[in-house]
Amino acid sequence: MEDCEKLDRQALMEIYGYRNKGVLGVVRLYCRQMFGLVLSSLARKAPPPGLRVALQRARGVKIGKHVYLAFNVDIDNIRPDLVTIEDHAAIGEHGMIFTHSNPGWCTEIKEKYFPPFFAPTTIKRGAWVAPGCIILAGLTIGEVSVVGAGAVVTRDIKPYTLVAGNPARVIRNLEPRADTRIPIEQSRKLGRRVYYGQMDTTRLKGEDDRHGAQ
Questions:
Q1: What is the DSSP code string of 91-124?
Q2: Which segments of the chain does DSSP mark as H helices, in order?
Q3: Residues 2-173, CATH architecture
């Protein structure tokens, strides 16, 4: 166990350029990890969405314009700089985005079955990752695609695609819908909350029919 821990520490020191710096390199590694954890914790809990984005950028995450990060979004603690989130993307609560895979301290698993690796992970423009999703290292979530709540993404997602499940599977391709916006006044009469003035009128039609029959 101790040897595996040392191997992991040496690997991290090599990644960060501390390999041949002796005790000072170890101290710098631990300080870097502590600072990164503080930023990561603040980024998960900060109330304003803009502050959460700013703190993730300070960690090295590449984030575009008008990106929404919900509370408790976890972005890789080893190489956050390998994560790219493009314009107008949204990540739901408790989402997890990885850029590395390390099966722990079992050398047999590492050497024979699942060698550790780092790879860039990209969330493309306009993608919506719903709450509770896990995105594994080295994957790309395509433009204007939707990842259903709780999905575990193990392969690239094509643009304009809805996926869900564990592992995530394609549910359907996204197609433009007719305008479903209704007046705010009408939505209040129906006792519904409306965000951004939009609602699915196909559901409302069924409710109207039921109310009219009473």
A1: E-TT-EE-SEE---S-HHIIIII---EE--EEE-
A2: 2-16, 22-45, 49-59, 107-108, 184-189, 201-213
A3: 3 Solenoid (2.160)
Cα 113 from chain centroid (whole Å): 26
As given in the structure block, the two tokens for residue 201 are 């009128």
C-alpha to C-alpha distance for 113 and 136, rounded to whole angstroms: 17
Work out the number of other CB atoms within 10 angstroms of the CB of residue 47.
Answer: 7
In the chain, where the domains are located: 2-173, 184-209
Q: Binning pLDDT at 50, 70 and 90, where does residue 116 land?
A: confident
Q: Which of 47, 41, 48, 71 is nearest to 58 (CA)?
A: 41
- Crossing angle of helices 2-16 and 22-45, in 10° steps, is 80
Place of tokens 């790219």: 84
Whose tokens are 């392969």? That residue is 155
pTM exceeds 0.85, yes or no: no
Instruction: Name the token pair of 149.
Output: 């709540």
Q: Are 13 and 27 in contact (CB under 8 A)?
A: no
Cβ proximity of 69 and 53 under 8 Å: yes
Averaged confidence pLDDT in the chain: 84
Return d(Cα 18, Cα 14) in angstroms, integer.
6
- Distance from C-alpha of 115 to C-alpha of 182, rounded to nearest angstrom: 54
One-letter amino acid at 42 equals L
Give the distance, in angstroms, between the CA of residue 147 and the centroid of all CA atoms in the same chain. 10
